[in-house]
Specification:
There is one protein chain. With 137 residues, the chain is mainly alpha-helical. It has 6 helices and 2 strands. Strand 1 and strand 2 form a beta hairpin. Helix 1 crosses helix 3 and helix 1 crosses helix 6. The protein is elongated and about 55 Å long. The relative contact order is 0.17. The model has no long low-confidence stretch (mean pLDDT 88).
């Protein structure tokens, strides 16, 4: 399981939104500029986060994005699953491109148990608010 740049930018963009009063809508370009993220890349990421119920998008006079829930209610696990896909916790950390349950590497099933027990639980317990608090320290 490796997180891509999309996940990094997703967290950065969410931090920018979470720094504002809850429910405040921000233009995509303002979010991107505040975190030095390419706008076109962030647009694709925010579409995934909207489909995943992490963000809400607004059209009309007030356009842009806002958090769907408060930062303390947004778990890293659901953020990463929205961006990376439902198979995120099934991927092998060692040989991502050629290892799966159907054709496992020698370490696959040991890693699978560790991944579910340690990383899955950690991401389930860690919220966007936790990440924000740690990044400000």
């Amino acid at each position: 399981m490796r997180l891509g740049r999309e996940s990094e930018y997703a967290v950065e963009g969410l931090i920018a939104l979470a720094a504002k009063p809850f429910g405040m809508v921000m233009l995509l370009r303002d979010v991107a500029k505040s975190r030095s993220i390419p706008v076109s890349f962030l647009a694709k990421i925010f579409q995934k986060l909207t489909r995943g119920g992490i963000l809400v998008s607004s059209r009309g006079a007030v356009r842009g994005y806002a958090l769907a829930r408060r930062p303390k209610d947004l778990k890293l696990k659901e953020i990463f699953l929205a961006v990376e896909g439902a198979d995120l916790f099934e991927r092998c950390i060692f040989w991502n491109d050629r290892c799966a349950d159907a054709s496992p590497c020698a370490l696959h099933f040991r890693w699978k148990r560790m991944r579910q027990r340690i990383i899955g639980e950690l991401m389930e317990k860690t919220t966007l608010a936790d990440v924000m608090n740690n990044s400000n320290s």
